[in-house]
Amino acid sequence: MLSFHREHDFVLFQCFDAEKVSLAGIMAAKRAPTAFFIFSEEQREATRAECQAQAEPRVKVSVGAVAKAIGEKWRALTDEEKASYKEKVAERAKALASAAADSAPAAGVALPAF
After folding, report:
1. Alpha helices in 33-102 (DSSP H)
2. Is 96 within 8 Å of 32 (Cβ atoms)?
3. Which of 21, 57, 85, 86 has the fewest CB within 10 Å, making it most exposed?
4. CB of 114 within 8 A of CB of 8?
5. What is the pLDDT along the chain (114 residues), one digit of tens a residue?
6. Which region, left, alpha or beta, applies to residue 108 given φ > 0 means left and ψ of -120 to 50 means alpha?
7. Separation CA 65–CA 76 (nearest Å)
8. Are the CB atoms for 61 and 51 separated by under 8 Å?
9. Nearest Cα to 34, choosing from 71, 76, 72?
10. pTM here?
């Protein structure tokens, strides 16, 4: 059984076919990540391992230290190297747009104005 904490959630949920779209799917982010976020996703594990190798034994590397190292790597990239990540952004944006079109409410269903 679904429970709603606010009336807004219930009204929004009623506008969609519950079998096709979940409430979590409606509330999910709908934008593609930036080129930097895609780069950081790909580089995070390797960078964490590099930072851990430079740290003292038995000392856990902080998230901030890893993020700082990833940022330094991003700034060191050339525009040509960054272009490949921008292409990945476009691919993810297309995928999100097609997913959003698939989960759109049925024609004729009016969304409430909030």
Report:
1. 35-54, 63-76, 79-102
2. yes
3. 57
4. yes
5. 555 555 555 545 555 555 555 555 555 557 889 999 999 999 999 999 999 999 888 889 999 999 999 999 999 999 999 999 999 999 998 888 888 777 666 555 566 666
6. left
7. 17
8. yes
9. 71
10. 0.63
Which positions ≥6 away from 3 have C-beta within 8 Å?
none
Question: Is residue 69 within 8 Å of 51, Cβ to Cβ?
Answer: yes
- Residue type for position 96: L
98: which 2 tokens? 């097609």
DSSP designation for 105: P
User: What domains does the chain contain, in order, with CATH numbers?
Assistant: 33-102 (1.10.30)
